[in-house]
Amino acid sequence: MEFLGNEMLTVKDGKLKIDGHDAGELAKMYETPLYVMSETQTVKNFERYVESFKEYSEKTGKETIFSFAYKANTNLALTKLLSKLGCGADIVSAGELYIAKISNVPSEKIVFNGNCKLKEEIKMGIETKIRAFNVDSISDLILINETAKEMGKIANVAFRVNPNVDPKTHPKISTGMKKNKFGLDIESGIALQTIKMAEKMENVKIVGIHCHIGSQLTEISPFVEETRKIMDFVVLLKNEGININDVNLGGGLGIPYDKQKVIPVQKDLAKAILSVIYEYESKIELPNLILEPGRSIVATSGVLLGTVKHIKDTPVAKWIMIDAGMNDMMRPAIYEAYHEITSCTLRSEKEVVSIAGGLCESSDVFGKDRELSKIEVNDTIAILDVGAYGISMANNYNSRGKPAMVLTSEKEVSIIRERETLADLISKDIVPNHLL
Ligand SMILES: Cc1ncc(COP(=O)(O)O)c(C=O)c1O
């Protein structure tokens, strides 16, 4: 089998290796379900962004900032790793801001997104002196201004605009079309009206324009359309006497979940976006560039290992039941997402099987009718490309503890998240006196 995008995976003597470590052995040593994150792959994915976009700062003298979308994965080892590499943080909650601060992300590389920010979160962002709040509505702007006023401070604001661009992705992860809840509509004039309101406010400073049209984009054309609409809007603002320092184009670059399909990578994204931005050189002073990639930095780095516990034949399928379930990795259940699956022991005989978890839900299925190498009870199964929106969406449904997590490099394996215990499952519940 081919591992497009998963350079940390190899097969030796019929055994799957992650950064050279035998996946079946990792499963035995740390038990399953187990998330394995490759440090090597994460560094490569991030450095490809730096490398692909480095010409922008060289040519223009402007900043290029990559703010990792924390929602993709907030494991502290990963956020610290990325922060050490010079990566910023795109956050959407007090929790994510807290993690960014603990990870030593410089405040000027933190951007605060979200369509329903809370006053306490805004306060925390102002205290941290973040680079910008990405304003999503007039009421969001008013709350930011009022909060800053009460604190005797000025808050930096960028405006999340909705450019009405079809990202050609799954509808549940599309965010920049008119029908979506996000952003300030450009066409109707709402975005301009909001920015003009901000101009008159005393406790906000206008610093940028922001946009994020969706996730898992596998074509470049929507990014081109987005960039052009944003740059046109920046020109319009300049003509209104409003100068924009930062243009933030969000995240969204997809990864090859389907190993048969070659899709654009960081350098294709850079080439497309930058060539549009350069077209505006004569019309405006080019801005600092911010991107918020999540999936394309960590998805391909992650593998979820599960152990085969039962094998069952029905008239229509052969079911392989593993100890990982939809509570560990929700994507197939909520988006019908495709993830490549492989046995960690590759035998020459093949069979068509369906792979399921043990939760009491028919949607707890990782893959249907897949041709895999013959599987036996106690084999380790690997679900690929789970490093983004995997552990960060994990939950305790069916009272199952969240899985453990290890970080691999060619040199070592480190545990980076403990498995939740039975006691953890009830640690926040309180039984009133009359029921004791
Ligand atoms: C505002 C914003 N920025 C960035 C991202 C990251 O997107 P991706 O993981 O597709 O790069 C998201 C994800 O939905 C988002 O909502």
TrEMBL record:
SUPFAM superfamilies: Alanine racemase C-terminal domain-like (SSF50621), PLP-binding barrel (SSF51419). Its cofactor is pyridoxal 5'-phosphate. Its EC number is 4.1.1.20. Belongs to the Orn/Lys/Arg decarboxylase class-II family. LysA subfamily. Substrate binds at residues 295, 331, 335, 361, 389. The active site is at residue 360. Gene3D superfamilies: Alanine racemase, Lyase, Ornithine Decarboxylase, Chain A, domain 1. CDD domains: PLPDE_III_DapDC. Residues 51-299 form the Orn/DAP/Arg decarboxylase 2 N-terminal domain. InterPro entries: Ala_racemase/Decarboxylase_C, DAP_deCOOHase_LysA, De-COase2_CS, De-COase2_N, De-COase2_pyr-phos_BS, Orn/DAP/Arg_de-COase, PLP-binding_barrel. Keywords: Amino-acid biosynthesis, Decarboxylase, Lyase, Lysine biosynthesis, Pyridoxal phosphate. HAMAP family: LysA. Specifically catalyzes the decarboxylation of meso-diaminopimelate (meso-DAP) to L-lysine. One of its GO terms (molecular function) is diaminopimelate decarboxylase activity. The modification N6-(pyridoxal phosphate)lysine is found at residue 71. It catalyses: meso-2,6-diaminopimelate + H(+) = L-lysine + CO2. Homodimer. Pyridoxal 5'-phosphate binds at residues 252, 292-295, 389. This is Diaminopimelate decarboxylase. It comes from Methanococcus vannielii (strain ATCC 35089 / DSM 1224 / JCM 13029 / OCM 148 / SB). GO terms for biological process: lysine biosynthetic process via diaminopimelate. Pfam families: Orn_Arg_deC_N (PF02784). Pathway: Amino-acid biosynthesis; L-lysine biosynthesis via DAP pathway; L-lysine from DL-2,6-diaminopimelate: step 1/1.
